[in-house]
Amino acid sequence: MVTHRGGVPEVDACKRWLLALAERGVRIGIPEIADYEVRRELLRAGKMRGIERLDALCETFEYLPLSTVVMRDAASLWAEVRKRGQPTADPRRSMRM
After folding, report:
1. Mean pLDDT in each 10-residue stretch from start to end of the chain (97 residues)?
2. pTM exceeds 0.90 for this model
């Protein structure tokens, strides 16, 4: 949401929230997988200004690259959460494999 153009109340509120966290010294990381998910949709839609804002976001905050260790840890964490019965996605959305 923070890569959306300003002037929308929800977007502006999200941006203010993120900046307030940064000003308080909260560590903010941009996971590479999140960058990928957002970037591919911006590219598909031809939203070049959104890509510029995403690039600026990735330069402003810590970029967290993927690695095999990270992905395996993520899989383990996901599995543990699911074993406890915690949903990890919208239950109305079907998963196709």
Report:
1. 89 94 96 95 95 95 94 92 85 57
2. no
